[in-house]
Amino acid sequence: MIINNINYKVIIIYSLFFLFISTRNSFAYLDPGTGSIIIQTIVAIIASFFAFSKYLKDTIINFLNDILNFYRLKKKEKIYKTGFFSETNFIYEYLEPHILNKLKKKKIILISFEKINVEYLDNEFIFVFHSNIIRELVFLTLNLKILYSSTPNLNQTIFKKTKFTNCKYIYLQHSPVSLNLIYSNNAFDSFDAIQVLSTFQLKEMKEIKDRNNLKIKIFKSQYLFPQKLKTLKKNQIVNEEILIAPSWNSNFYSTNCHILLKESLDKNNISFKLRPHPMSFKKNEISLDELAKHNIPIDKTSFMNLYNYNFLITDWSGAFIEFALLFKRKAFLINTPMKIINKDYSKYKNQPIEILLRNTLGKTFTIDNIDNLVNHIRSIKKDINTEDEEVKKIVDENFYK
Q1: For position 3, what pLDDT does the model report?
Q2: Which of 84, 126, 146, 307 is most buried by its number of CB atoms within 10 A?
Q3: CB-based burial of residue 254 (10 Å sphere; 0-12 exposed, 13-18 middle, 19+ buried)?
Q4: What's the pLDDT at 259?
Q5: Are 248 and 318 in contact (CB under 8 A)?
Q6: Helix, coil or strand: residue 273
Q7: How many CA atoms lie less than 13 Å away from 302 in the CB half-sphere?
Q8: Is 129 helix (H, G, I), strand (E, B) or coil?
Q9: If you write DSSP's letter for every residue of 171-209 in order, what string do you get?
Q10: Rounded to 5 degrees, what are φ and ψ at 196?
Q11: For residues 316 and 249, is the Cβ–Cβ distance under 8 A?
Q12: What is d(CA 324, CA 361) in angstroms, rounded to the nearest whole number?
């Protein structure tokens, strides 16, 4: 519901109310002279209101709509006991196959932090929340039997377990990567069940369960995202030879890999597109303006479809594993400094798949050897339909179907 034509006095009242209930932490203290500063700040906010009326109006409208959506959700929860939490559109692409499977049997509720437009799910059952205070309230008062999510760190952020019902929280993987390298030590501790996609994830999750003394259910099932891509394959046309899809937090941009690759690929007349990870923008690793300055073409599609390309270049992204699952061929990996979220990963007995199979599912090159990478691609362009037997064997024996 969109709220229009709001009286400005009401807007000012709600804006001040919103500012005072904000969930941001305050690392300050009050002293005797603070009162006048607070008053001056409030006056300044009101005085500048009309200059920033659109921004404030949108903020207030979002907050009020969040309240309305909260009450709508409470009514629907009583009827439909199964829900999905998709934090972003990026995550939704990975949850979609699971959602479609559930919709064959029952109606579901979808909670998100971004607007999601899908034809097969009535907007009546999609609930989007923008303000953190309402988001946290939604989770704390959730009245579902089951909530599926691909957002880790349950109970460590505003994504918290409900205080009112015995809702079961099930984690669905959105990547076939290691569970002890790019996730924190306690990322899965509060879930009731965890999906694993391969023998590698199964071994890691069993070790995590034992180390953290968890009563968590581990279930094996197929990684559905590649199957989603396969259903789209017949409609795909290869427009570019190469997709460059680096991970975030891997120094790919700070080491100028994107510029070096462009120079070498252009020199060899090989077409390509770069697909930055959404977190690379959020963490200010790269910007659209900077990419435009270097005339680097960008893949802006809603999700990464590897069938649009013949080759994949990445660094530490799990996309190289997805490439192997789809094509039974090796991707090309640049040895940037390794992406590590969990610095304790070396204390685990099971080696992360990104390290264990890096030179089996991929062909690696150093940063100063990018020209050789490009020359190698040029030399094998005619062999794109030839499967790598070693890659095929690992995929067939270790990834669940």
Answers
A1: 40
A2: 84
A3: exposed
A4: 96
A5: no
A6: strand
A7: 11
A8: coil
A9: E--S--S-TTTSS-TTTTTT-SEEEE-BHHHHHHHHHHH
A10: -125, 145
A11: no
A12: 6
Computed over its alpha carbons, how large is the radius of gyration of the chain?
Answer: 24
Q: What angle do CA 338, 344, 350 make, to 5 degrees?
A: 85
Percent composition of the chain: helix, strand, coil (DSSP 3-state, to 5): 45, 10, 45
Domain with CATH 3.40.50 in the chain: 66-222, 228-398
CA dist 230 and 243 (Å) reads 17
Half-sphere exposure of 318 (CA within 13 A, CB side): 17
Element spanning 36, H or E: helix 34-47
Q: How far apart are CA 313 and CA 305, in angstroms?
A: 14
Nearest to 262 by CA among 240, 285, 283, 280: 240
Closest by CA to 283, choosing from 232, 341, 237, is 341
Residue count (the chain): 401
Residue 176's closest CA among 60, 307, 323?
323
Question: HSE-up of 180 (CA within 13 Å, CB side)?
Answer: 24
Structure tokens at 184: 């924190």
Single-letter code of the amino acid located at 315: D
Q: What is the CATH number of domain 66-222?
A: 3.40.50
Q: How far apart are CA 295 and CA 55, in angstroms?
A: 32
Assign 379 to helix, strand or coil.
helix
Q: Where are the beta strands (DSSP E) in 79-163?
A: 82-86, 109-112, 126-128, 146-149
For the residues of 217-252, what is the DSSP string, one character each?
EEEE---HHHHHHHHHGGG-----SEEE-PPSSSST
Instruction: For residue 269, give the DSSP letter.
Output: T
Q: What is the mean pLDDT of each run of 10 residues along the chain (401 residues)?
A: 42 47 45 59 64 73 93 89 94 94 91 87 89 95 96 96 94 96 94 98 97 96 90 67 92 95 95 94 94 95 88 95 95 92 92 94 96 93 86 96 91
Sequence letter at residue 299: D
Which two three-digit tokens encode residue 74?
């409470």
The C-alpha angle 342, 331, 323, rounded to 5 degrees, equals 80
Q: Hey, is 59 helix, strand or coil? A: helix
Report which of 316, 315, 366, 320 is spatially closest to residue 341, judged by C-alpha positions.
316
* Topology, domain 228-398: Rossmann fold (3.40.50)
Q: Give the pLDDT confidence score for residue 240 in this predicted structure.
A: 78
